[in-house]
Amino acid sequence: MVRRRSKKSISKIWMITREYDGIAGAGGVKDVSMQLSEALAEAGKKVSVVMPLYGSMNPEQLGFKPLGLAFDVDMPYVGLERRERVTIWSRNGRVSIYLVDAQRYREKRSIYTYTAEEEAENLSNRQGDGHFDYFAMNVLLQKASIALMICLNEVPDIIHCQDGHTAILPAMIRETEGYRHFFRKTGFIVTIHNAGIGYHQEVGDLPFAQTICGLPTRTMINSLLHDYFDPFLAASPYSVMNTVSENYARELRETEDDVMTGWLGHELLKRGVRLVGVTNGINPEDFNPGKPKQLGIAAGFDPLSGDLAGKKKCRKELMKLINDRKLDRILQTGSIEDRPGQPLFTLVGRLTFQKGVDKLIGALDALLAMDTNFQVLLLGTGDKEIENSLIELTKKKKSSGRICVLFGYDPVLANKIYAAGDFFLIPSQYEPCGLTDYIAQLYGNIPIVHHVGGLVKVVDNETGFAYQDHNSAALMAAMQKALQIYRRSPDTIKKIQQKAVRHIHDNYTWKKVVEHYISLYQEALTLISTSEQI
To answer: Roughly how many angstroms between the first and final C-alpha of the chain, as a whole number?
Structure first.
């Protein structure tokens, strides 16, 4: 039985996450965690965030201080009672942030995968592979977060769990004696950032999962997807669940594209679980090219007013950096000449099949031979097969001076590429929301997207260019269309740039999006059952 409650004022929100922008990040989770937290704080909420302290982080340099709190967390393995010691660091500000310091995190130099340095030290830790103890890392964060709130005597109105890494927490609390009483007035929300196969944080060793999580057998059985314990299914009876765009939520529940999740969306639908779509927002001021010093770009410009003189200077500076090979920690393949009159296609992101880079390679291989008056610049790392194919493409005669791939990542370099580019390529196989399309648009870099998931917010011929079929031919046709308009109708390009920026300000600032989350928080409170209202 569920008791429906009158609207309660929500004032205290705790967010549990593996990433937070400006501290440690790998993808969109970092942006949502930070920007949503800041937006909630600006709306008058008291916001606290808990995340791990990874070995690559220097807490003092990041402004953290020891909280003076340490405790042991039960982390048993099958047939072995064991605990792990954690200490807590904190940083106070508009958002209070807590770091969980434990050996399990300190020995990791990247958030989710092993680095080249770790592989050099231990060949079993292959660069790019996920951490062997990923599940224990997730469980430790969730258990430590619960313990921290109890130690501080903090009873949140809402605990917001970001992605599968933290999705077991609602089940842990509701199914553990003592926890459920302490948090009896707390509601839960779980945000699915990526439901793709391999992103659920699932585990096949069920005795291990049950032992380390401490969940009852019935909960384990009810949380199985294809014989794997799935954190998202574990969360579903106890929390409001959302994903990061309306269209992605629809695709997971209503289309065959859900096959790419292992049919998670259809399983949730079968169980009567409502999956809400809330398209991510952005803070336009964080990517305002009118403030070049803040972004590390060569000159300021304003796509909204049509003043793009500074954009040419940004391109010239970037070309010099690349040709002088003055990019630290970046491996360069290919070359790109300074040809100011030629349109520049850009990409910043993971070089993977999911991101559609295989389709881009096919499109470029054909288009570079057909059209000799454009250039391409890519930044990122990813699948070895994709990276090797890109290297081979840059070696071809038709690519000389026209295509350059920069392996690695640097946020300031990314800003320079956004600022210099004319068109931004997002050929993703699937895309829960997409943030790079926003960023590109704010820089006057028109996105060309596979019209899927959250990328449907790019309106074809109005705020960018979109194509329907996930193949190289469709992508190439969209690129050719963009080139044709660029050359024949500069005024149309300027109108698209301007409308794209207005569209973001009108619909997708965090100040607007945060209201959707506050509504979901209210909904989460209605899921608190009578047995929890002691």
So the answer is: 14
Q: Indicate the pTM of the whole model.
A: 0.90
What 3 state SS string does 199-248 have?
CCCCECCHHHHHHHHCCCHHHHHHCEECCEECHHHHHCCCCEEEECCHHH
> Are 194 and 167 spatial neighbours (Cβ–Cβ below 8 Å)?
no
Burial of residue 16 (CB within 10 Å: 0-12, 13-18, 19+) is buried
16, 50 contact by CB (below 8 A): yes
Residues for the chain: how many in total? 534
pLDDT, mean over the chain: 94
- Rounded Cα distance, 90 and 66, in Å: 6
Q: Residue 225: what are its φ and ψ, rounded to 5°? A: -130, 110
Whole-number Å distance between alpha carbons of 440 and 452: 18
- The β-bridge relationship of strands 331-336 and 402-407 is antiparallel
pLDDT at 172 over 60: yes
Q: Give the pair of three-digit tokens for residue 116.
A: 């080249």
Residues 227/230/232/237 CA torsion (nearest 10 deg): 70
